[in-house]
Amino acid sequence: MRVRLVLPLVAIALAACGGSSTGPTPPVDTQTITVTNSGFSPETLSVVSNTKVIWHATEGTHVIRFVGSIPNGSDPNSSSFSAGTSVSTVFITLKTYTYIDSLIPADTGVVIVHN
Hints:
The protein is mainly β. The protein has one domain (27-114): Immunoglobulin-like, CATH 2.60.40.420. It is built from one helix and ten strands, in the order αββββββββββ. The chain has one helix at residues 2-17, and strands at 29-36, 39-41, 44-48, 51-57, 61-62, 64-67, 81-82, 86-91, 96-101, 104-114. The strands form three sheets. It has a four-stranded mixed sheet with strand order 2-1-4-8, with no helix packed on it. A four-stranded mixed sheet has the order 3-10-9-6, with no helix packed on it. The N and C termini lie far apart (58 Å). Mean pLDDT is 84; it is low at 9-16.
């Protein structure tokens, strides 16, 4: 009797596992900001929603920190990264985001997310 009850439950559970994924949507675009000891290039970047922005260091050590609005994508504030390495964030919400290099606070940048 127990086997008869378990088999239909297993079939239902397996059916529930199939179908489309409900995971996050992959980014629609990727943009790169170059990070040097003298700042960001470009300093202002305009992107569409669901864009992955990569900060790539070409010299020195850096830490990206957002000021005011914090993006709700992945990993909005970075740990330190140095020449030849990168960090990234996916921007979802339509908004303007200001960030700094917390190791060189005079270096600031802006990401504008639009439709």
